[in-house]
Amino acid sequence: MESTASPPLKLFLLLSCIAFIPAASSSPRPISSPTAQLLPKESLPTKSGYLPVSPTSGSAIFYAFYEAQRPTTPRSQTPLLIWLQGGPGCSSMIGNFYELGPWRVSSVAHNAEHLVVEPNPGSWNRLFGLLFLDNPIGVGFSVAASPEEIPRDQFTVAKHLFAAITAFVKLDAAFKSRPIYVTGESYAGKYVPAIGYYTLKWNAELPPSQRLNLAGVAIGNGLTDPATQVATHAANAYFSGFINERQKSELETAQWEAVKLTKMESWSQATDARTGVLRLLQNMTGLATLYDFTRKVPYNTQWVTQILQKQEVKRALEANESIVFDECSDVVGAALSEDVMKSVKYMVEHLVKNSKVLLYQGHSDLRDGVVSTEAWVKTMEWEGIDEFLSAERKVWRVNGVLAGYVQKWGSLSHVVVLGAGHLVPTDQPMSSQAMIEDWVLEKGLLADSKDERFAIGDRLEI
């Protein structure tokens, strides 16, 4: 999710307490009795630890990897999903323990003081390996050796991710041949295209033995082309019945200011203007959260922070025990503040020509939802865009129940998930699992037809 907290004043003190972290480890984990109750042995990652982002720095990305529970292919061919959280500055442990990981945190009898982790039937590692990366450095359990090393743009984010993923692949010879799908939500609507684009560019320059086996990218409720997306809020809220015409006009004025500042490349001011638009929309609607207009209370992501601040849990996950875990880092959010309104649409355009792309949204998200995404997709420069826009939007059912809608042409797929907000896997675990599995395996409504492959095959950039 996107973080909206203001930057802190104690940047150096926060980072200076973090020690150097060695490279990844998968040694046996000593589990004390309290941890065994909260994190059963079977809930622990297959591997976890730290991945270096540079040979000359102590900065490292924390990872937690869960092997496929019931793979249908040999391990060397089993797809590998990578999950990146948004923010900017939020930990992928939210995705792990609150959304799509094999075990999810929940409260006992709605008592936030008594939390447990329970098996998640909608986990994304049912058929695939699943790798969570705390990205960028400084987020979650990841380590920034100095404030200057925290990324301030998507190029640096991608550079660090490429190094970390390359290091992960080297941990096991079987990883090398596994197809990689990079996934994420919200501000990862930038991270995912950035690492995908960076990988394709570098793969073209590297010998085959050093390339990453990128097969596709998936973006959920993403912020990808911010100026286009911020301009949709007034109309979306108005035609959804949340604001009246006078409020719509007021919100449009605020939106145009954010767009104007973006065009002027006044990045900090544009970011502040977008924040103002969202705050105005929040005040006008009075909703518990813009992330899901059906919710009476916000998402309980703070539960993840509660369990991951326990020393025994950190030890079991092989995380640095000196780090005080927080779900979102204000420090990293501040470092990327000038990046917020910059578009990465051109990266998605490159990816859709050279791999495959899935865009999905929860229907009830008022921040980065369906209307917001469709607005920028219509402006894509891609040979297949006209065919995609005229493709049938099909009714999608999971286990015979209406789950949403699928629109697809060639390498681009778009899914709308009903009954879900910003955190789609949290709200609709089984639908999200069916979606990601069908997309990766090209089944059901997300299968490629021979006609579509032939129609655009000659125009793909290889």
Could you outline the blueprint of secondary structure elements for this entry?
Layout: H1 11-16, H2 33-38, E1 47-52, E2 60-66, E3 80-84, H3 93-100, E4 103-108, E5 111-119, E6 129-133, H4 154-169, E7 180-185, H5 188-203, E8 214-220, H6 226-230, H7 233-239, H8 245-263, H9 267-285, H10 302-308, H11 311-317, H12 330-335, H13 345-354, E9 357-362, H14 370-377, H15 385-390, E10 393-398, E11 401-409, E12 412-417, H16 424-427, H17 429-441, H18 450-457
Parallel strand pairs: 3-6, 3-7, 7-8, 8-9, 9-12
Antiparallel strand pairs: 1-2, 2-6, 4-5, 10-11, 11-12
Helix pairs in contact: 4-5, 5-13, 7-8, 8-9
How would you describe the overall organization of this protein?
The radius of gyration is 21 Å and the shape is globular. By secondary structure, the protein is α/β, with parallel strands linked by helices. 37% of the residues lie in helices and 17% in strands. The strands form two sheets. It has a ten-stranded mixed β-sheet, sandwiched between helices. A two-stranded antiparallel sheet has the order 4-5. The chain has two domains: 357 residues, Alpha/Beta hydrolase fold, catalytic domain (Rossmann fold), CATH 3.40.50; 59 residues. The chain contains 18 helices and twelve strands.
Poorly predicted regions: 4-36, 450-462
Domain module count: 2
CATH superfamily descriptor of the largest domain: Alpha/Beta hydrolase fold, catalytic domain
The CATH architecture of the largest domain comes to: 3-Layer(aba) Sandwich
Number of strands: 12
Biggest pleated-sheet summary: 10 strands, mixed
Strand proportion: 15-25%
Cα end-to-end separation:
33 Å
User: Whole-number radius of gyration?
Assistant: 21 Å
In CATH, what is the class of the largest domain?
Alpha Beta
The neighbouring-strand order within the major sheet is 1-2-6-3-7-8-9-12-11-10
Order of helices and strands, N to C? HHEEEHEEEHEHEHHHHHHHHEHHEEEHHH
Basic shape: globular
Mean pLDDT equals 90
